Amino acid sequence: MLSIKRVPTVVSNYQKDEAEEVSRRGGCGRNCLNKCCIEGAKIPLYAFKELNKIACSKGLCCQYENSVPPVAFLDSLLLGEWEDRMQRGLFRYDVTACETKVIPGKYGFIAQLNEGRHLKKRPTEFRVDKVLQPFDGNKFNFTKVGQEEVLFRFEPNENGGDTEFIPNAPVDVENSPSVVAINVSPIEYGHVLLIPRVLECFPQRIDPESFLLAVHMAAEAGNTYFRLGYNSLGAFATINHLHFQAYYLAVPFPIEKAPMKKIITLKDGVLVSELLKYPVRGLVFEGGNSLQALSNSVSDACICLQENNIPFNVLIADCGQRIFVLPQCYAEKQALGEVSSELLETQVNPAVWEISGHMVLKRKEDYEEASEENAWRLLAEVSLSEERFQEVCALIFEVINTGDAENAEGSPSCPKEQSDACVKKVEAKNASPRLPVTGTQECLV
Q1: Which of 187, 280, 316, 328 could bond to 383 as cystine, CB 3.0-4.6 Å?
Q2: 35-52+71-405 adopts what CATH topology?
């Protein structure tokens, strides 16, 4: 059984219902991240040097091969500050008290019993059949969290210089900060949120600049056990304010061990492969001539998916060197009544972490009976069918940078002569009337 040290926690004062009375001393009185309170605030700044190369095989950013970083990003800064917030009682429950185990079997699925996440979640309602939806400032968003929940700002060095750490950096509200904050309903040790340009109030949608920021964070961490994830709306994101998740778990995720089959090498050197012998079909992007080339290829694929209303999840692994893109249809099947009552009763909504093999279970009986067969059965319901997956692949390869690309023999994507037909088939499917669904998704953040 996996274990980490326990730290006593209490519920944060900043997680009270918004209807509760709060003091009005300065701004809104809640010391929030919005413009009413953040102007003049000082928040630690980690200003990273933008990389031109992929992180080296040792897991350390290439910029530090002959020097020492100003602060140990993962150990001293992120995890150290996260521990501080735990001791200060800013979490909804003590995640270190949750039971966790590796499920016996070939794949090594990880099971966690996390009843607190189920009982103390923040309910959020929105349409589950639309990947892109306008930001709604009346609903919960990250400008409403307390500044105490913020660990530090994470931004490129605006002068293009080396990485710097500034403990008390003033915030310029005209230049919206990107912040790293705790997830108050954590799944695992060190669970944080990366919120790009928080004051811009972007809805939950991928854009190239924000995605590159997330890839840089994985590279700065320099540890393969620290991963970042993204959930689109319709794929169990429950807050429509742009954010990525990240946490530290010192075991390999099953998806990281799955075999792959090469599909294509893009002209910028990015290799695109298909997952094999895994319950969820997906694409894997890796390599490339630069960190930005890899990031751009993935963000282009994600933008294609969201513009075609295809829900998806993303896992950024291996210090930003390998990125999984996973279109899914579980919420759609739920809405259509196509998921078995047995699976629905578990109340597990498979987002990026579950799809990657970290099964967050809400009932003790499910945890005690956890098996590789049960995990596989749940995740198989998440996956697109083979036919639909090939259609989606064809749609992606129509828009990503494939000029001078090299196709692999036996590529599973649609052959060139069938590409237009595949694309039209997906577009027709997405244009057809779909079940209008509103409701509450049970997975928080």
Answers
A1: 280
A2: HIT family, subunit A (3.30.428)
